[in-house]
Amino acid sequence: MTDTPLRVGVLGYRFMGKAHSNALARLPMFFPDAPDVERHTLVGRDEAALADAADRFGFTHTATDWADAIDEVDVFYNLGPNHVHAEPSIAALEAGVPVLCEKPLAPTLETAATMRDAAAAAEVPAGCAFNYRFVPAIRYAKSLIADGELGEIRQVRGRYLQDWLVDPDAPWAWRMDADLAGSGALGDLGAHTVDLLNFLVGDRVGGVETVSGHLKTFVDERPVLDDEGTVSEYRDVTVDDAYTAQIEYESGATGSLEASRVATGHKNDHTVEIHGTAGSLRFSLERLNELELLRTGNRGYETVLVTDESDPYVDHWWPPGHVLGWEHTFVHENYEFLSAVESGEPFSPSFTEAYEVQRVLDAVERSDERGERVSLD
Ligand code: SOE
């Protein structure tokens, strides 16, 4: 264990930059056994916005070229847009710098494979930031499933509903461009659901084997706004606003998945439900401190408040019932990743696990194109 802080470089200073910077700032107070970390270099293109973010997020240096940052830091966080995930992450890994990359791993399966291979060749941890694995209630659910409390898993169900694109005049952004993002609701939201289900039931049902998928774009062009907020042009939307999919796992268990960015009234509504021969469980991000359980023989679901000090991560925070929020999942994720960096132990979810998610995303897209059920490549 070194007594000098780990210097962290972060590419990206918008939504995910804020979420992870906040998590790094919380660690010393709530996870005192976490490695000491210096928020060292914040990377971005707009120097004025970057300087302001570095000041607010507590970074001591800034850089407009990620390559400069990689030479100066001990850990590299790639929080940029999907099309920026590969090159900086691979360069960091080849330089022996551990990487935490935001999800989905890449816009395409082929690019995800190059990242997976770079991580396999590296001697340092490479993680993909599927933060919902780090919800205490999800960890509790996984322990119940692993202990056989639900029996044999037969069906899973996952949906991730948002409504930020209901307005056809909501401005165009990189998330709406297939060349930049890869896909829309499928990769941005569906990736979380596929990974979360893999995390919860993968040990019991194996990997996804076949997929039938459908992608839908409801608004096929959106306004591009200039710095004054005036519409300068309209640009094509080349990704899905919503997807649905039916999956089958190696064990024969089946699942139905969907996500939408136009589900009016739903803000960040991610729910998963698992049905086994001995019971079921249901989780909703909008009630993330709770887990609904049904054990065979009981008349209905019971709601468990997962905030006891014996529950995963909770003892680091507050007494029972003093609930956690969305941001705490990033603190847990950063704690685990930086602990893996310090110990040299592997971190999960790895780039290999993130590649398995990308295989499902790719299969949904191929199934949609062909109009038929497909196997994973
Ligand atoms: C999309 O709006 C988004 O920010 C996703 O990109 C995140 O992964 C999800 O956690 C919240 O919603």
Question: What does it look like?
Answer:
By secondary structure, the chain is α/β, with parallel strands linked by helices. The chain has two domains: 126 residues, Rossmann fold (3-Layer(aba) Sandwich), CATH 3.40.50.720; 216 residues, Dihydrodipicolinate Reductase, domain 2. The protein is 34% helix and 25% strand. Helix 4 packs parallel to helix 5 and helix 5 packs antiparallel against helix 10. The two termini are 41 Å apart. Alpha-L-sorbopyranose binds next to loops.
Oligomer classification: single chain
What portion of residues is helical?
Answer: 25-40%
* Mean pLDDT across all amino acids: 97
CATH class identity of the largest domain: Alpha Beta
What is the beta-strand fraction?
Answer: 25-35%
Count the helices. How many? 10
Strands, helices and their partners?
Layout: E1 6-11, H1 15-30, E2 37-43, H2 47-57, E3 61-63, H3 66-72, E4 75-78, H4 86-94, E5 99-101, H5 109-121, E6 126-128, H6 136-146, E7 153-161, H7 178-181, H8 185-205, E8 208-216, E9 221-225, E10 231-236, E11 242-249, E12 254-260, E13 269-276, E14 279-284, E15 290-295, E16 302-305, H9 326-343, H10 351-370, E17 374-375
Parallel strand pairs: 1-2, 1-4, 2-3, 4-5, 5-6, 7-12
Antiparallel strand pairs: 7-13, 8-11, 8-17, 9-10, 11-12, 13-14, 14-15, 15-16
Residues 15, 162, 188, 268 line the site of alpha-L-sorbopyranose.
